[in-house]
Amino acid sequence: MVHLEKLEFESMTNHDLDPIAAAVAHNEHYAQAHGAMDLPTEPSKHLAIVTCMDSRLDLFGALGLHLGEAHIIRNAGGIATDDVVRSLILSQRLLGTDRIMVIHHSRCGLEGLDEQALRASIANDTGTESTVVFGGFTDVFADVRKTMDRLSSDPALQSVEVKGFVFDVDQGALLPVERS
Ligand SMILES: [Zn+2]
User: Fold this and answer.
1) How far is the CA of 9 from the centre of ligand 1 (A)?
2) Cut 0.70: pTM above it
3) Phi and psi, residue 105, nearest 5°
4) Which among 70, 104, 84 is positioned nearest to 154, based on CA atoms?
5) Distance, CA 39 to ligand 1 centroid (Å)?
6) pLDDT tens-digit series, residues 121-161
7) Neighbours of 41 (CB within 10 A)
8) How far does the centroid of ligand 1 lie from the alpha carbon of residue 21, in Å?
9) Which of 30, 91, 122, 139 lies in disulfide reach of 97, CB 3.0 to 4.6 Å?
């Protein structure tokens, strides 16, 4: 098990840097603390997590995970797109994961999304109709169940254990979601 202590470089934070330059500057210190590692490519906990890109989700901290232990597959909403299925097939068949956690969360940007209005604004700004399906939803618990059902029913995925949760971004707590 590898555990990097959370790095604190408050005194070195440069608020004048743009966010990417600040990230690159931070990495110099991170790499020094990181040192040489030779972790295997296969996640040691054989766990894959499908979750949202939300900036308030720190799954390493929230779930006690460390480097080399789990795959974390993220997109807007943590929904089961074709690309998530692609990643899970590779995760399972090439890299040995055998269980999936689906984690959506409270106050998601996709909750209550008006897809038609978004589509109209894109068409208005660009003159081009977008065909992207954005995945808006009204009930986060129902959306977790929908994602679990999609993953469980895909014939290309092995019949592995799929468990679903909603993460409360205000409390930091994980709420289990039962299958329908
Ligand atoms: Zn979200």
Assistant:
1) 28
2) yes
3) -155, 165
4) 84
5) 30
6) 999 999 999 999 999 999 999 999 999 999 999 999 977 99
7) 8
8) 26
9) 91
Query: Phi and psi of 168, rounded to 5°?
Result: -85, 110
Spatial distance between the Cα atoms of 85 and 110, rounded to a whole number of angstroms: 20
The alpha carbon of 164 and the centre of ligand 1 are apart by a number of angstroms equal to 15
CATH code 3.40.50.300 for 39-177: no
Pseudo-torsion of CA 43, 45, 49, 54, nearest 10°?
A: -80
Ligand 1 center to residue 56 CA distance, Å?
9
Report CA(11)–ligand 1 centroid distance (Å): 32
Whether 81 and 51 have beta carbons less than 8 Å apart is answered as no
Q: Where are the domains of the chain?
A: 1-38, 39-177
Q: Per the structure block, which two tokens stand in for 72?
A: 């974390």
Structure token digits, residue 157: 């995925």
